[in-house]
Amino acid sequence: MNSLIVYCSSHGTTEKAVGLLCENLEGGVLSVDLKREKTMFDLKDFDRVIIGGSIHAGQIQRKIKKFIQTHHDELLEKELGLFLVCMRDGDTAIEQFNTAYPQDLRKNSVAMALFGGEFLVSKMNFFERQVVKKVDGVMNDQTKLDMEAIMEFASRLNQVKSFV
């Protein structure tokens, strides 16, 4: 099974999660950071597509939204995994997930997960630091990355037998 992971990573947390997924998914895996890489790929070459991003100011990255809009119909025909990196918990995190991914993609997914997140203040620009300080009262790096959720997500995907 060939898997494509498309994601955006602003400060490296989503990239960490993708690295763990790559190590734990069976079959071939290509990961592409839509924010940084210009890797060319054709969705037809992949049985499985995994989409992930992080929340900034309550929204997933624009490049993830654009990827979903551009490939929406094709994504509905794939084995699909969706994940989100965010610092919120409970209903707020679920609401952010539901806002990030259209309902029909969520319904079609074989795996969905919230991976927790990090505030990497040391990697933020001045504006980001001010927002995080004001909104969350955070002035130092903090991590709530959920390794168990990442491993469970990979395991769930590995258990699915492709219908393609």
Strand count, sense and closure of the main sheet?
6 strands, mixed
Shape: globular
Taken together, the total number of domains comes to 1
Rounded to the nearest angstrom, the radius of gyration is: 15 Å
Structural class: alpha/beta
Beta strand count? 8
Low-confidence stretches: none
Beta strand %: 15-25%
Oligomer: single chain
Helix content: 40-55%
CATH topology: Rossmann fold
Chain-averaged pLDDT: 88
Q: Helix and strand succession?
A: EHEEEHEHHEEHEH
At CATH level 2, the architecture is: 3-Layer(aba) Sandwich
Distance separating the two termini: 10 Å
Q: Give the full name of the CATH homologous superfamily.
A: Flavodoxin domain
Number of helices: 6
Identify the CATH class. Answer: Alpha Beta
